[in-house]
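Notebook entry, structure prediction.
Reason for the run: the old model in the group folder had no record of what sequence produced it. Starting over properly, with the input documented here first.
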Amino acid sequence: MNPLQILENIPEGVFAISQDCRITYFNQKAEEITGYTRQQAVGKTCYEVFRPEICQSTCSIKRSMTTGKESFDHQVNVLHRSNKPLSIRIQTSPLRDDGGAIVGGLQTFHLIDRPNEEVREELVLFELRKKIGRDRRLAQVLEILPDLAKGDSPVLLQGEPGTGKRLLAKAIHGLSERADGPFFHVSCKGRGEDSLTRELLGPDLDLDKEGTPRKKGLLERAHRGTIFMEGIEDLPYPLQVGFFRAMEKGVYLPVGAESSVELDIRLIASTQTDLGTKVKEGTFRENLFYCLNVFKVLVPPLRERKEDIPLLARDILWQMSLEAGKEVHDIDEEASLVLQDYPFPGNLTELRTILEEAYRAAGGKTLRKGDLPRSVIAQGKSEEASPEAQGQGTEAPQTGEKDAIQAALIRNQWSRKRAARELGMDRTTLWRKMKRMGLDYTTPPDKNTEEPTETG
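New structure, fully documented this time:
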């Protein structure tokens, strides 16, 4: 009998890991909290199951295994199997054999089911970083989001299609004082005036049926909530006039109503173009533009956030693996480079579409260049083919950075995978830096070695 079996029915999640950080035990409460069965969890690294935002240097269970000491009451944000963000509190301790030698680690955890405002904010931003990215430019956007959410002024999100503007709008709503109110998404693209009028103000009354109750439009249903107007540059001009007046006065007359109703909504709008240009062209109302342009957030395209691409790809592949059953949860350097050189006109939406096709073609647990669609490979500009291009647009390596990278590689037996996590970077980025700095393996890497990862 497994001695850990006594932990099966306690009210906290418990899992144990071996020295290579693979899960060896997963109790019933851990299944309930994470959404994974023990059959799905055992044998995986704890990083794969919990998908936290930490690197090896802050891993509590690894530290307990190294120091032989327990750690207590750390808060960690993780992802449920369904991709829902969770906040848990953890305790870790080393596991010892009968002779006292450390043979693994044990972690107990429980769900923070009533998070305070600070934890709720952390969860929202954690989910965004997992789904959209976390490079420097995007980090600047996410940094201002909580303060932006606390106000009640309109917000304009400007960016290309598929950059995650709807996710940002939902996050602003979720961080605001209107979070308990309704959130409605209205797409203006390709919609006629009649269609949008019915959706926003309510449909015409059915005069053939007496006593038919008046159907409310979204503006009325969104009272004390938020409306996200996607593609507001396509809002028909007559509706722009009425919409601005309603926002300005705080009241409007719905279709079929006998009296005006109060309009208490927060407006978040998105655009793919510069609305100032639309104003000059005479296709967008100047007063509505100035109303929206007070708080404008520029969302960077994926091609300008190359280091996010491998990280996002791994998270997407892992989610596909959970949904479809075939395990493909890693991507090799060559495939990463092809994706990083691809322009992604469709941004995050296109990345997922490309990975769906590559996932179906993959024959192993690691996605390779040959699994990618031919059109993507053809557009990729391989740096291997042009050594001179590798130095363009990059700064000369700093001695301190080179020393830090070399030290991390030595500590991790020249495993790029482990060293990259310790340094807090993607291993494709590390590989690029090593090539640029002239660093090479002094000891052949162990291809079977998995990076020690942990939820704490």
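Summary: The chain has a mean pLDDT of 85.
The old model has been moved to the deprecated folder.
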